[in-house]
Write a structure and sequence with these properties.
This protein is mostly beta strands and 921 residues long. Helices cover 11% and strands 33% of the residues. The strands form eleven sheets. The chain has a nine-stranded mixed sheet, with helices on both faces. Helix 3 (231-239) packs across helix 9 and helix 5 (264-283) crosses helix 7. The longest helix is centred in the first third of the chain and has 20 residues, at 264-283. The two termini are 36 Å apart. 52% of the residues are buried.
Length: 921
């Protein structure tokens, strides 16, 4: 008897694995095949379930490696998020601990990254939508161009300090950085800190594709200098008088797959560790590295954080942690905050927690051809700040047509990087993308993209650090362009700043003449965007649940003009201090000529039409997130002339004027020029922890999900309690105060002595008003502590005449509470004649291996690797081999059968059994 891994699979992936080189074939030498005795439905090709030490894992394998990138690879069952799997070293196998999820619920399995399917191509067939991509009209030039170099000479150099240890990370993380600063500048100068995203960490010089995610690098490999990829941006800023530093985070990239928050807290800690050193050096110049001593003194009261991809989420968390300290157990930084973060620039960022910092101004750059964070989830750094706090911080989104994810970093750009690099927007030569294929009229070159990115980073620095309001029109939806960024087309919209009186679809607004839709809902009739529609919207990027409350839009569709859609907020709004009404609306990509009138009505029922607008869709395809809102402004002068009471505006109306069309309204605001001073509010902070407990053998114990509420004041968050069986979530609005235990989620754990699987009882939290959320997800993990079942394979009928059925019994020593699966494999015989593919029932052979009897070959050559299923409560299952009679006189023939591990290798301590078939007398 032996203890074996508990495994389940149900499909053949021979075709998928064919041609996989080296490690792929070593990890999976034989294809998983369906069992003729299995009771469960098969999983899709490439999937299996296995387990070791009682922990089940859902496993997906792909013949092509998934590059190490910033988007989180996720497993889904339809609309249900199963979790983020862990990659193997070769990037071809991904494993997810299943906890208590039953195999029966693993329907419609999908692998996604930022909403993009990795296991299936996008539908960009001719019937899936318009393919006529038009470049947006070039906007008028702004009066000030921040992309022009300044007058300062620069100094460049690096520092390399002792590595730091971060909570939850076994290997210390480097403290390495590249400094570019103005030379000869007087006084203290603002500081801009850059943090790169998740990329390969090591490369082998001279190779074309030998890149790893190790840290430290193995012998013969060198670190990939991702932090050097922003030198052009740093040089531009330094010439304009800013001190810049770009920090390395390879040590985090190599380990963040182990972190529940994908490394956001670790990146924040690393950023603040560097800022603490700069604060020390500003006070004690003699202790600073040589390059810092040569540079102008940094002014730590004016700090801009620039983060790319996961680096974007990291600097957002650093801004949060600098205002609202995280729990000490989660944070590796201990010194006081001696800096002030005036703003952030987030380039193609992730936002897994959907937890932006409302009181720190931000600019989010969304690349229209992002092939990594392809859902452009960073839009939440704008949308997710609405109504959270005071609303004075400007939050801007820039949509850069034709830009990919990688080319903002020269060390991720082919032809410029020292390590192997690639265009993250993969191109199929047989089906070129009409928008993003290199050479398309709408696609930027690497040089054009990087130059445009540097220009808008400089615009943010000039606005947030230098207070130059003349560059604001480049960022806030005013429709101006920076000539230095030409030929890039960059569209902008914003919330915050001097906006007020928001018409928001959420918060009790009444909508007539249109549909109030939900950003995330499994029902297509409720969802804002049908999942079958090619392409996606950054405004509707997925979070943790299949259904969300409080993320809505207004969907107006018409086939004839004239019927108005009216949005009536719960209370009248004041637009008295506003100059214009600014709407954020989007239309389907590649459409043109959508027209509608915009009207407002006051509490005395006076109605005024402010004007008419026309909207054209962005260039888009099935592979892009081009359903993105453009900002449209109409002066309020007509309302003033008509005597409308702008202190009490009761409703907003959109009246279609084109013959047909469709418009989604995200929100509308009163707008006025200028950039107000921002003072962060004192808010409560919520962090969800995780507790791991043993099930126990008897009795019932009640545990609670650990939640820490710190900070000041009171606010509201929405708590989603995730059902571990169905994946569905119940949610409730909770008012939180520091030190309180109002987020109380009890979990009853019943002990037993029957083997089962562990279960995770999770919650997810999102800020609603006057609160911030740090670690947004956590829960209680219950580990099963009962002995694993012991498998035995024994003969039932192992000697038959032709036409008889060979039978073996797979048994366990005790019934369990869960489905058990164990693979067996037909092996070559050691001596004598072996049963052939013509000696067994052809339908059985087809069901068990997908093979035909001809050409005749030994049975072991048919790749018979079969998974036997023992249902809950049962103690065994039979493996049967039906043989057939023939008219050929033959000697005794045999076959050999063995239990295997999940890589199809025979278990070393398990007996190999033999079955014999004799000619009929």
């Amino acid at each position: 008897m032996i203890r074996a891994r508990i495994c389940v699979t149900a499909v053949a992936v021979l075709a998928a694995l064919a041609g996989s080189p080296g490690p792929a074939q070593a990890e999976q030498p034989y294809p998983p095949l369906p069992s003729s005795t299995a009771d469960a439905d098969p999983l899709p090709p490439g999937w299996r379930i296995d387990g070791e030490g009682g922990a089940r894992e859902l496993v997906w394998r792909t013949p092509e490696a998934v590059p190490m990138g910033d988007a989180r690879v996720e497993f889904r069952a339809g609309d249900r998020l199963l979790g983020a799997p862990k990659p193997t070293r070769d990037g071809k196998t991904f494993r997810l601990a299943l906890g208590g999820t039953p195999p029966a619920q693993l329907n419609d399995l999908q692998v996604t990254a930022a909403g993009r399917r990795l296991d299936a191509p996008a539908d960009d067939s001719p019937g899936s939508g318009s393919h006529v991509a038009r470049m947006p009209t070039r906007a008028p030039a702004n009066g000030v161009d921040p992309g022009l170099p300044g007058s300062y000479r620069t100094v460049t150099g690096k520092y390399d300090l002792d590595p730091v240890r971060l909570p939850g990370f076994g290997t210390p993380v480097e403290m390495t950085a590249e400094v570019v600063a103005p030379k000869g500048a007087t006084g203290s100068r603002p500081l801009a800190l850059f943090l790169h995203g998740r990329h390969g960490t090591c490369y082998k010089p001279g190779s074309e594709d030998d890149v790893t995610g190790d840290w430290p690098c193995a012998d013969g490999y060198r670190p990939i200098p991702s932090h050097l990829g922003y030198l052009r941006d740093q040089l531009l800023l330094a010439s304009q008088g800013y001190v810049t530093v770009s920090i390395s985070a390879n040590g985090i990239n190599a380990q963040d797959w182990e972190a529940e928050d994908a490394g956001a807290q670790a990146r924040s800690t690393l950023v603040r560790e560097h800022l603490a050193r700069w604060a020390d050096w500003s006070a004690h110049r003699s202790a600073a590295p040589a390059v810092v001593r040569k540079a102008a003194r940094a002014d730590l009261s004016r700090v801009l954080l620039v983060g790319h991809s996961r680096g974007g989420e990291g600097v957002n968390r650093a801004a949060m942690d600098s205002l609202y300290p995280p729990p000490a157990a989660e944070d590796g930084h201990r010194s006081p905050v001696r800096w002030k973060i005036r703003g952030t620039v987030l380039i193609g960022p992730t936002v897994f927690g959907q937890n932006p910092v409302a009181d720190v101004p931000s600019v989010t750059l969304l690349p229209g051809c992002d092939g990594d964070v392809s859902d452009l989830q960073g839009e939440n750094y704008v949308d997710g700040t609405r109504g959270i706090s005071r609303g004075t911080a400007l939050h801007s989104a820039l949509y850069m047509v034709g830009a990919n994810h990688n080319y903002f970093n020269s060390e991720w750009t082919p032809g410029e990087a020292v390590a192997p690099a690639a265009d993250d927007f993969g191109t199929d030569p047989d089906q070129p993308d009409p928008v993003c294929t290199p050479g398309a009229a709408t696609r930027l070159t690497a040089a054009q993209q990087h130059k445009a990115g540097a220009t808008y980073i400089a615009a943010a620095a000039r606005l947030f650090l230098a207070g130059d309001d003349r560059v604001r029109p480049l960022l806030d939806g005013s429709g101006k362009r920076a000539p230095s960024a030409d030929p890039a087309r960059v569209l902008t919209h914003a919330v915050g700043g001097r906006r007020g009186g928001g018409f928001l679809p959420d918060g009790g607004a009444k909508v007539t003449g249109a549909r109030l839709c939900s950003a995330i809902d499994p029902d297509p009739a409720v969802a804002c965007l049908d999942p079958q529609v090619p392409g996606s919207s950054p405004h509707f990027a997925w979070w943790e649940t299949e259904q969300e409350t409080g993320r809505s839009a207004v969907d107006l569709k018409w086939s004839a003009p004239g019927t108005a859609a009216r949005i009536t907020p719960a209370e009248p709004l004041s637009l008295r201090a506003s100059r214009s009404l600014a709407l954020r609306v989007f239309v389907p990509p590649n459409t043109t000529g959508t027209k509608f009138d915009v009207s407002v009505t006051d509490s005395s029922h006076r109605r005024v039409t402010l004007g008419s607008v026309r909207v054209d869709g962005l260039p888009g395809s099935a592979n892009t997130a081009s359903y993105w809102a453009q900002e449209l402004r109409l002066p309020l002068s007509a309302a003033t002339r008509a005597g409308l009471d702008l202190r009490h505006v009761r409703s907003l109306e959109l009246t279609p004027r084109s013959r047909s069309g469709r418009v989604w309204l995200m929100d509308a605001w009163g707008w006025a020029p200028g950039t107000p001073a921002v003072k962060a509010a004192a808010l409560p902070r919520v962090d969800v922890g995780r507790t791991i407990v043993k099930e126990g053998d008897s009795g019932t114990r009640t545990y609670r999900v650990p939640v820490k509420i710190s900070g000041h004041g009171s606010g509201q968050v929405r708590v989603y309690v995730l059902d571990p069986d169905s994946g569905r979530a119940e949610n409730r609005l909770v008012t939180v105060r520091p030190g309180s235990d109002v987020i109380d989620v009890p979990v009853e754990v019943k002990g037993d002595t029957v083997y089962g699987y562990g279960t995770a009882y999770d919650i997810a939290v999102k800020a609603v008003r006057d609160a911030v959320v740090g670690k947004h997800r956590g829960g209680l993990t219950v580990e099963d502590d009962d002995p694993e079942p012991v498998f035995t394979l024994s003969p039932v009928t192992d000697r038959v005449t032709e036409g008889g059925t060979l039978t073996w019994r797979l048994s366990v020593d005790a019934p369990t509470a869960v489905n058990l699966w164990q693979p067996v494999r037909v092996l070559p015989v050691a001596e004598g004649a072996e049963l052939s593919t013509r000696d067994v029932d052809p339908q059985w052979l087809m069901d068990g291996s997908g093979d035909m009897p001809d050409p005749e070959r030994p049975l072991s050559g048919a790749s018979l690797w079969v998974w036997l299923h023992i249902p809950p409560g049962d103690t065994g299952a039979d493996f049967v081999v039906p043989t057939v009679r023939d008219q050929v006189a033959e000697p005794a023939e045999s076959m050999r059968l063995a239990l295997t591990d999940d890589d199809a290798e025979p278990l070393p301590d398990a007996p190999v059994l033999t079955g014999t078939v004799l000619d009929e007398p």
